[in-house]
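Hi U.,

Before I forget, here's the chain from the pilot set. I'm dumping it here mostly so it's searchable later in email.
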Amino acid sequence: MKTGQFELIYLACFVLVSVVRAVGVTLARRQADTKQKTLPKWNLDTLGALLQSLGLFILPFVYLFSDWLDFANFHMPAGPGYIGGLLYLFGIWILWKTHRDLGANWSDSIETRQGQTLVTGGIYSRIRHPMYTAHTVMALGQVLLLGNWIAGPSFLVLQLPFYALRIPAEERRLLQHFGRAYRDYMLRTGRLLPKLG
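Structure:
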């Protein structure tokens, strides 16, 4: 196992994000009082879960716990490494805030369900997809924490193309479900960053 300071910071952040996600998912399911549905194989949601797993922890763990990716190692200077840790923590905070503000409205799929409401308060008052913002900020942190040309950027490289497919699909579904309320909401918020002006 690699035990450099930035690798250990990454592992601590990974544990923290896992706890935040588990608590958020548990509370959402409890509040919604619904059972987790089985997703069909090979749809956009399952593709995203696979890509996220590969980039967020499978390739980083291969790098950390084996020598298979050592050919792509490089020395990470201290400054960028610490910035990476701060970015990762900031991404975790955004993720926590997103789960807190969504509550029972969180879903792991694009589909909407009966009784789901449009959340426009909290972090959602400025950004429509803060969970994807959180993942992107964490992915940037991972790039700066892991001194490996494969494991470091894996989350960022695998997630961004997926978001380019998922976000428009998700917004089409939300427009169908919420209609004009969602269209008005789109006009006053940004997708991943707050809208200027």
